[in-house]
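Tip: read the tokens left to right.
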């Protein structure tokens, strides 16, 4: 009997930031997804092709691939960007050419020199990386597996977001809203209607303004870097500030919601930037800028989603794109909009587009087959390399013990109850920017001073940065106001008043927490650990933060884990069923 061919559909995020790879099998199941930064240990892997040579070698060696199709999450470059690219190559930033005046007029009012530098740094990087992405896979699959090289398929950026979000949601029917900085041809918002296997574009989006660009500007106004992913810091800092009415009014004069369109007065960007630079807002602090901007962003999105409901009423709403990472905003939508059920995938930003690209390829080459829906598992990344684990056991000199799983939960729960800070690694890595119990640093959430201790001695980051409460699903409604299931830390919700003292270390200054609801079905090991901790402390919650230090991606290899363990204030580290002590 002939061996069945194993065909894999390979999706790549070909953006200049957060490149990633996803694999879908011949039955339409997502079997692998991971950001390139995990392998490179270079935060966000800026200006890096998704299919790094050594990363791809490992993927090919770990998967039986007899045939493949490959594609990216971007379509062909628009003629506009091609023309601008070649034009800018012939001009320098001091030029007074009319094209720069035209661009400065059209793109958010950014001053000429700054616009040109930003364009080179982002659009041209995208232009180059889309050209290079996929060729390493083609070369290595030919060299190692003898498969003839296939063409690289190009897929619509927002449609990739929509496919990833729809088929990982629990919905078979929904409205899908994509909000980001920019998709193909500059579109920043797209609206789709999903019905089973059919995802139809119902609003093409528009180019007038980008909510993602607004938040990038806000990050810049706060003196932070979008290229380092410091939008997180803006969200964490915002509750420490207060409303600056003058800045708020300037924001309102800059951007407005008109039905399902967002309009802007582009010149206002430069006006606000100059006022901040010249200290013209009375008694304003960076934290006030963050608070005012976050509040305004939330109001814009809430108003837009309410207008969307008027145009496309439905029980179910899916949101993806980079703006869906704003968990403080997402946490308000089920409260202040009519949509009853709102879903955000574990990787809503461009990294998730690799999954969408792979699913689109599957559908393209198998039009009569259905893509399995409700593929909610976020644990799609690399597993622990057993040889690397053997090396640390044999050569590190660390005291270690191997425990059977029921005993492991009890031992680590006791360590956590006693105030120890634990690195916790199990199974496959999470796909997306947040640790969900498989590549986590864990601690007792009730201890005063624990937040400051972890920020100062483990993560080495700013003291205002909050930590997430991971809570057993069945207790979540008792702990959070307006509770809504949140398996991927996609929402910030208010902690109930009578539970705040119990959750000292994860209760942010505004009495909120970016929670993760943990079920036994989704993560048995993590669920059992929290259950044992609850048995000891009567607290069904653990403090959960990503297993990394500031400026580095979440750990991938055992060597990465050891590096954080050795150079930080971690008390112990668990890798599968082994516990290591210093």
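Filled-in amino acids:
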């Amino acid at each position: 009997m002939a061996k069945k061919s194993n065909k894999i559909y390979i999706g790549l995020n070909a953006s200049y930031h957060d490149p990633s790879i996803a694999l879908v099998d011949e039955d339409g199941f997502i079997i692998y997804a991971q950001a390139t930064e995990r392998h490179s240990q270079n935060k966000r892997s800026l200006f890096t092709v998704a299919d790094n040579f050594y990363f791809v070698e490992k993927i090919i060696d770990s998967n039986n691939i007899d045939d493949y199709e490959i594609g990216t999450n971007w379509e062909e470059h628009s003629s506009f960007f091609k023309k601008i690219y070649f034009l800018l190559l012939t001009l320098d930033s001091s030029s007074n050419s009319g094209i720069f005046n035209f661009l400065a007029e059209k793109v958010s009012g950014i001053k000429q020199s700054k616009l040109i530098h930003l364009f080179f740094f982002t659009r041209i990087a995208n232009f180059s990386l889309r050209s290079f992405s996929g060729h390493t896979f083609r070369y290595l699959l030919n060299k190692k597996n003898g498969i003839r090289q296939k063409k690289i398929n190009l897929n619509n950026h927002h449609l990739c977001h929509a496919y990833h979000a729809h088929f990982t949601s629990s919905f078979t029917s929904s409205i899908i809203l994509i909000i980001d900085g920019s998709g193909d041809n500059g579109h920043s918002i797209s609206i789709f209607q999903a019905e089973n296997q059919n995802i139809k574009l119902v609003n093409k989006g528009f180019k007038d303004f980008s909510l993602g660009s607004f938040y990038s500007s806000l990050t810049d106004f706060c003196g932070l870097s979008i290229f380092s992913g410091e939008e997180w810091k803006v969200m964490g800092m915002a509750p420490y500030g207060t409303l600056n009415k003058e800045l708020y009014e300037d924001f309102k004069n800059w951007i407005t919601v008109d039905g399902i369109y967002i309009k802007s007065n582009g010149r206002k960007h430069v006006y606000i930037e100059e006022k901040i630079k010249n200290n013209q807002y009375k008694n304003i602090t960076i934290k006030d800028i963050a608070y005012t901007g976050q509040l305004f962003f939330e109001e814009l999105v809430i108003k837009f989603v309410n207008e969307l409901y008027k145009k496309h009423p439905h029980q179910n709403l899916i949101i993806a794109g980079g703006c869906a990472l704003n968990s403080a905003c997402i946490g308000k939508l089920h409260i202040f909009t009519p949509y009853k059920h709102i879903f955000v995938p574990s990787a809503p930003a461009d990294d998730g587009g690799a999954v969408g690209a792979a699913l689109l390829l599957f559908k393209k080459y198998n039009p009569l087959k259905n893509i399995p829906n409700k593929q909610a598992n976020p644990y799609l990344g690399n597993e622990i390399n057993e040889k690397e684990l053997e090396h640390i056991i044999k050569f590190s000199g660390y005291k270690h013990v191997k425990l059977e799983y029921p005993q492991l939960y009890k031992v680590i729960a006791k360590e956590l109850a006693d105030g120890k800070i634990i690195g916790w690694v199990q199974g496959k890595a999470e796909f997306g920017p947040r640790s969900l119990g498989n590549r986590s640093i864990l601690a007792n959430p009730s201890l005063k001073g624990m937040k400051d201790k972890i920020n100062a001695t483990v993560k080495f980051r700013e003291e205002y940065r909050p930590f997430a409460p991971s809570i057993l699903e069945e207790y979540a409604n008792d702990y959070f106001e307006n509770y809504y299931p949140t398996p991927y830390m996609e929402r910030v919700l208010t902690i109930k008043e009578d539970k705040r003292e119990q959750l000292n270390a994860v209760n942010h200054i505004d009495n909120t927490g970016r929670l993760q609801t943990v079920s036994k079905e989704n993560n048995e090991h993590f669920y059992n650990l929290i259950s044992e901790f609850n048995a000891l402390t009567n607290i069904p919650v653990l403090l959960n933060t990503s297993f990394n230090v500031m400026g580095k991606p979440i750990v991938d290899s055992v060597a990465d884990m050891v590096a954080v363990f050795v150079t930080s204030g971690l008390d112990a580290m668990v890798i599968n069923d082994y516990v290591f002590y210093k």
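The chain has three domains: 1-169+345-376, 211-343, 386-581. The domain at 386-581 is CATH 3.90.870.20 (DHBP synthase).
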